[in-house]
Amino acid sequence: MGFDWMGDLLREANQVIRGLFRSPGFTLLAVLTMAVGIGANTAMFSVIENVILRPLPYREPGRLTIVWGKDDRGNPGNVGYATYVDWRTQNKSFEELALYRSWSPVLQTNEPEQLSGLRVTNNFFRTLGVHPQFGRDFHQEEDIPSASHVVILSHNLWQRRFNSDPSAIGKAITLNATAYLVVGVLPADFQSLFSMDPHGGPVDIWGALGYDASLPWACRTCQHLVAIGRLRQGVPFTGANAEMDTISPALWKAYPKEYSASGVILTPLREHLVGPVSTTLYTLLGAVSFVLLIACANLANLLLARAAARNREIAVRTALGCRSSS
């Protein structure tokens, strides 16, 4: 006699389904028990996948790093513009080295709105490997105090406040009672991970930093800027850090009153963005995995209790030559 595995499978499935309908209370409890464990794990893994596992939305993100100054306690800190100029001209490890700082301009077109913005050096988007979808990037000659009234819009702001009008590019808008020229719009899928908005909102607008050494807030002790660099192809983080650690002591000796300590800290961009939350997320994943384990154990206990309660019924069925059913 051949083995009719399909027929046996269908009969077993039929018995299981009949058993589930005979005990709706048990079935509902089992489904809810597993749903809690599986649902919590699925939700938690989705968060981890989006925050930690998914590649950063920039060109070759593994070459991007935040470049910090080091204080007298060895902690990372922001940098002054004059220090950045020396870093940029003296290093050989970085393909690009850019700056950004917070900016909260008020858009005075129709209804006034305070925007979340950043002031950036002209090479900021080149450092990230991002190109505007419409219009153009900042020009080097626009990154000076007298010509820095140029802005690039997020795609969302362009849609929301300018009705996706292509003619908005090349026109002037009023920010903080000053006219600024719109030169570009970023792609719809661009994600700015550098928001300095205290409320955590997305960045709406980017303006040219427009610093030079003549500005009083461009001094070495005016440490309100964040530096981000793209390493040259083949340059390791350790090599770049070693080079910057030779540049920094030389600046400290040249300007002893301007620095509390020498030293530079390089933090890979992924570590900078997700490092503070990765431990928490993995801890939460472990916790919800434990919840799933408990759910499985509870369901197993329910099945054992149900089977024990049916021992007499199964014994009678076996004595009569019948198959046991669920």
Short summary of the structure?
The protein has 326 residues and is of the alpha+beta class. It has eight helices and 13 strands. The chain is elongated, with a radius of gyration of 31 Å.
The profile of the biggest β sheet is:
11 strands, mixed
Query: What is the number of helical segments per DSSP (H or I, 4+ residues)?
Result: 8
The proportion of strand residues reads: 15-25%
> In whole angstroms, how far apart are the ends?
26 Å
Q: What is the N-to-C order of secondary-structure elements (H for helix, E for strand)?
A: HHEEHEEEEHEEHEEEEHEHH
What is the tally of beta strands?
A: 13
Mean of pLDDT: 85
Task: List low-pLDDT spans.
Answer: none
Class per helix and strand makeup: alpha+beta
Helical coverage, percent range = 40-55%
| Rg value | 31 Å
Q: Rough shape?
A: elongated
Q: Could you walk me through the main structural features you see in this protein, from its secondary elements to its overall organization?
A:
- It is a single chain.
- The mean pLDDT is 85.
- By secondary structure, the protein is an alpha+beta fold.
- It is built from eight helices and 13 strands.
- β9 and β10 form a beta hairpin.
- Strands 1, 2, 3, 6, 7, 8, 9, 10, 11, 12 and 13 form an eleven-stranded mixed β-sheet that branches. Strands 4-5 form a two-stranded antiparallel ribbon.
- Helices cover 43% and strands 18% of the residues.
